[in-house]
Design brief:
mainly alpha
Length: 58
């Protein structure tokens, strides 16, 4: 991380459970917004897994 003494690595070499949860929550929000936008364009898809997701969330 650019520090010769290792102090920064000792502080930031891991993530906390709270940090991981915030990441999951943020990515879930982005995913749901993307599905909503895709559904707005067209409610179905010839791709089976996407079609099921579009209908499940709607």
């Amino acid at each position: 991380m650019g520090h010769a003494d290792g102090s920064v690595q000792a502080l930031y070499a891991h993530i906390t459970a709270g940090m991981a949860q915030r990441l999951v929550d943020g990515l879930t929000e982005v995913w749901r917004a993307a599905l909503d936008e895709r559904r707005r364009l067209s409610p179905g898809s010839p791709v089976g897994v996407l079609d099921r997701l579009l209908w499940a969330e709607g």
